């Protein structure tokens, strides 16, 4: 199929529920009114944020993407046998192009593919490309925040099973309660006969983790700061980008990387009618990246009414794929 036709088809099938500037402003005001101040990490991913995230995945320190890709390349036959044929693949997020290709290539006769993605550009790029590559798989994209309930577009052919795909350890960007709610919502999406294939970053040496979130080229710092640039662009806030710096550090106690934007001086920032004052050194918490052990991940899934039925790690136990089903 040629690219123009694939894009037109994908546009026609698009369900567009992306967030409005008023919702973004309300979330930003709400987060900055808290102590400590915070901003939701889901707003990292505008077009520029998605581009910067792709660049992060190519940094030598950020092992997660390369290790997960290699894992999928080597273990896909075993994953496909465990999932079975005729799946409707529902991906939460869609920035993971190559991983999705490996999944659709490796599964037996997948019927449909639904990426749910907040960034319209990333969503359309991915279904245009995948639509050309997999003409036999129905592309049913949904532009939405996947943390809320999302109605699944029905496939026109018979589906044996829904397979939720959530790679990249993106689950780790959710606080425990939200992660459990998200897993429970995946359980609802997949139905009683469904499965979920989830990528998780495994707990490891703090120095390796600190390096992964503080790459030498400064791409992660640019990615974090783009959150403020995006707010300036989309909701008219007046963050001075030179007045904030990126900080990411591993907390062994909480088994997670904690990322913040730290005010380099006393300053105030305006969003609409509201003004927020910052002390020098004051942090805005912007992201957590949870790391897992088998025990901590199993405990999380149980709370969501799911159980781990299969799993694959790389040879050095850096990253894992887990297959879940309803309990
Ligand atoms: C998308 N997510 C899993 C990334 C992570 O590792 O937490 C986002 C990221 N933030 C900084 N670097 C990468």
Q: How would you describe the shape?
A: globular
Helix content: 25-40%
Topology as a string of helices (H) and strands (E) = HEHEHHEHEHEEEHEHHEEEEEHEE
| pLDDT < 50 runs, ≥5 residues | none
Bound molecules: N,N-dimethyl-L-histidine
> What's the total count of β strands?
15
Task: Describe it.
The chain is an alpha/beta fold and 327 residues long. 39% of the residues lie in helices and 26% in strands. It has ten helices and 15 strands. Strands 1, 3, 4, 5, 6, 7, 8, 14 and 15 form a nine-stranded mixed sheet that branches. A four-stranded mixed sheet has the order 2-13-10-9. Strands 11-12 form a two-stranded antiparallel sheet. Strand 7 (161-166), helix 7 (176-190) and strand 8 (195-201) form a beta-alpha-beta unit.
Key features of this structure:
single chain; 9-stranded mixed sheet; 15 strands; binds N,N-dimethyl-L-histidine
Q: Which helices and strands, and how do they pair?
A:
Blueprint (H helix, E strand, L loop, with lengths): L2 H11 L1 E3 L3 H12 L4 E2 L8 H10 L6 H21 L3 E6 L4 H10 L5 E6 L2 H14 L4 E2 L2 E3 L16 E6 L9 H15 L4 E7 L4 H7 L6 H17 L8 E8 L4 E8 L3 E5 L2 E5 L4 E8 L3 H10 L2 E8 L5 E8 L1
Parallel strand pairs: 1-6, 2-13, 3-4, 3-7, 4-5, 4-6, 7-8
Antiparallel strand pairs: 8-15, 9-10, 10-13, 11-12, 14-15
Helix pairs in contact: 1-6, 3-9, 4-5
The structure holds N,N-dimethyl-L-histidine.
N,N-dimethyl-L-histidine binds next to helix 9 and strand 13.
């Amino acid at each position: 199929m040629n690219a123009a036709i694939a894009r037109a088809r994908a546009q026609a099938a698009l369900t567009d529920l992306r967030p409005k500037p008023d919702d973004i402003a309300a979330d930003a005001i709400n987060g900055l009114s808290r102590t400590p101040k915070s901003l939701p990490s889901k707003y990292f991913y505008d077009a520029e944020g998605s581009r910067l995230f792709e660049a992060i995945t190519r940094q030598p320190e950020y092992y997660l993407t390369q290790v997960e890709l290699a894992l999928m390349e080597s273990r896909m036959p075993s994953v496909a046998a465990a999932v079975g044929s005729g799946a409707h693949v529902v991906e939460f997020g869609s920035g993971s192009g190559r991983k999705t290709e490996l999944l659709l290539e490796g599964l037996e006769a997948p019927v449909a593919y639904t990426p749910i993605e907040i960034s319209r550009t990333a969503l359309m790029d991915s279904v245009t490309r995948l639509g050309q590559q997999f003409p036999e798989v129905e592309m049913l994209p949904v532009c939405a925040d996947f943390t809320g309930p999302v109605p699944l577009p029905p496939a026109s052919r018979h589906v044996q099973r829904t397979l939720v795909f959530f790679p990249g350890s993106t689950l780790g960007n959710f606080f425990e309660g939200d992660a459990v709610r998200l897993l429970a919502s995946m359980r609802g999406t997949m139905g009683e006969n469904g499965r979920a294939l989830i990528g998780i970053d495994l707990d490891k040496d703090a120095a390796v983790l600190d390096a992964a979130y503080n790459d030498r080229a400064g791409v992660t710092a640019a990615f974090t700061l783009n959150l403020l640039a995006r707010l300036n662009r989309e909701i008219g806030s007046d963050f001075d980008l030179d007045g904030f710096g990126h900080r990411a550090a591993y907390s062994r106690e909480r088994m997670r990387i904690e990322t913040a934007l730290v005010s380099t001086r006393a300053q105030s920032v305006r969003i609409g009618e509201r003004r927020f004052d910052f002390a020098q050194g004051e942090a805005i918490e912007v992201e957590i990246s949870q790391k897992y052990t088998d025990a901590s991940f199993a405990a999380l899934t149980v709370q969501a009414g799911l159980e781990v039925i299969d799993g694959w790690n790389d040879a050095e136990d850096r990253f894992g794929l887990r297959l879940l089903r309803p309990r």
